[in-house]
Amino acid sequence: MRHQSSYFPSGITRFLIILSSFCALDLLSWPIFFSYFLWVFADRSNFLNLDYLISQHLRIGVDTFYSYGLLPVFLQHVLFAVFGRGYWPMIGCTIVVAILLAVFWSMFVRSVSNRWIYLLAVVAISPLLLGGVNPNFPYSLVELSMLFSLLFLLRGRPEVALAISMIGCVSVPSLPLLLTGLLVLYLVVDWWSEGVRRPSVLLRRLAPGIATYAVLAVFLGTFFSFRSMLATALPVMGMKYYYVARNTGFNDLISFLHPPGYSFKYYAVYSFVTPVAWWVVSTLGLVVLALFAARTMIRNRKPDPRHAIVVFCAVIQVFFACFAYRNEGEHFIYDPVTAAGMLVAISVFPVPRYRKRLLILFACIGLMAQASQIRHSLSSWKETSPSSLTARLYAEPEYPSEMAHILQIAATQKVLLMSNATGVHHFYPKLMPVNSWFLVSGLMAPPDRERVLASMRSADVIVEDTVNPPWFIDRDPEAIKEVRGMCLTEVTKHFQIWWKTPPDGAVCKANPRQTPGNAVANLER
């Protein structure tokens, strides 16, 4: 039973309050929102480069490696066709996502409770509900899909929830697949508990989800090729990377919870001024409260939307922590789902008089967790600035001069800039393109490798990004051989410059990066 309050704001008021908090965060974090590093030298650059690979008629997931779903690639392709390639169309997507998230949270908080304190809690932890200041587009679709699925389940529409979850499955086939499986289980158990167990009734309830996935799969398969659809339908590509190319331990999760090399005093402060304490409390809280929710449903012998959401969010969070946390900061993607689960869990806590206290504790810990984000945003204002050489994006002061020097070389030489961010050539057309999604051995198909090696052989100069290093030239034997035959003439803060035929008077330096490839070379010297 929802708590009633005649003073609870209207839907449009709730929406504007929440959207205002999101806008305030983005304005405070403007240099991060328009970060040169994020758009040019991080994952967003790789996603931009996918559109260049499509223009070469390469089949995604077949001729070039790709580990996400096809829906975000298609939407991006349409936007680029209409507005042109670049970061502005994707900035537009980020704004639309923020608006849709504000719509979700305004609807969600009303469905959970009519008390002002729940709305205030959402505003207090609003930075955690955005999934990051500048989220990666595929994961924005995942967030929206999972969150609106939970909303429709909360409102007693599990069939619609299942259909919406399918959007996440063709965006990033990872945790949305788990949520889809849980929703199917919910529908089956609910159908069984009704007593009238006709298969036709169950099929009708599953039909919206099946039809949604079928339509999306046929459409995307027709547009990209059905081999691409099959290659990206399951998380096989992502698992190949994480469980073959990388270790399978908990290094990234441990680094988030307990970064090495600091004192106990540092950890005590770090836990509360970052999302660590909030994340741990939410994870443990979801697990405990999910046990109560499961017991209630077992006793009633019928699934209940609110209790089911608590159980689902707990299962997703535990699965994420144990099996899917494989990148630094990845928790931001699913923090909104965790928060939604905790808000519902608190609203159905078995002892009503403790609900308000738990909510205040939850919101206060979440509010304190924003200190590190505020500090990061303020330092970005001080330490970065836009310029024409950085596409008017906010960059560290060394980048403009370093890029100007690289472009000067590119005026007379064929320059290949190699970075794990492969879309740099879009911003600097004088540079040779890198015809692969990533430059990581575990994230390259055989045709990717051959195209990259061909580019390395034809280049006069190779510029190596040392901030986001291309693992390919550290580990691939042919790439190592190619680089070892060149002369390293310059080492700057962000780059190393290799020449096949060095300029007159240039002195060849030893590679300062400790990699498997240069260890042998240094011994030979």
Q: Would you kindly provide a written description of the structure presented here, covering whatever features stand out?
A:
This protein has about 525 residues and is mainly α. It has 27 helices and four strands. The protein has helices at about 10-30, 30-35, 35-40, 45-55, 70-85, 85-110, 115-125, 125-130, 135-155, 160-170, 175-195, 200-225, 225-230, 235-245, 250-255, 265-275, 275-300, 305-325, 330-345, 355-370, 370-385, 400-410, 425, 445-460, 470-475, 475-485, 515-525, and strands at about 415-420, 460-465, 485-490, 495-500. Strands 1-2-4-3 form a four-stranded mixed beta sheet, covered by helices on one side. A hairpin with a 3-residue loop joins strand 3 (about 485-490) and strand 4. Helix 9 (about 135-155) runs parallel beside helix 19 (about 330-345), helix 11 packs antiparallel against helix 18 (about 305-325) and helix 19 runs antiparallel to helix 20 (about 355-370). The chain is globular, with a radius of gyration of 25 Å.
Please describe the structure with a list of short key phrases separated by commas or semicolons.
27 helices; 525 residues; mainly alpha; disordered C terminus; disordered N terminus; 4 strands; four-stranded mixed beta sheet
In short:
By secondary structure, the chain is mainly alpha-helical. It has 27 helices and four strands.
Q: Radius of gyration from the CA trace?
A: 25 Å
Helix content: 55-70%
Uncertain runs are 1-6, 519-525
CA-to-CA gap between the ends?
76 Å
Q: Total helix count?
A: 27
Q: Strand portion, in percent?
A: under 5%
Mean pLDDT: 91
Task: Give a count of the beta strands, DSSP E runs of length 2 or more.
Answer: 4
The computed structural class is mainly alpha
Overall body shape: globular
Largest beta sheet, briefly?
A: 4 strands, mixed
What strand line-up does the widest sheet have?
1-2-4-3
Counting copies of identical and different chains, the oligomeric state is: single chain
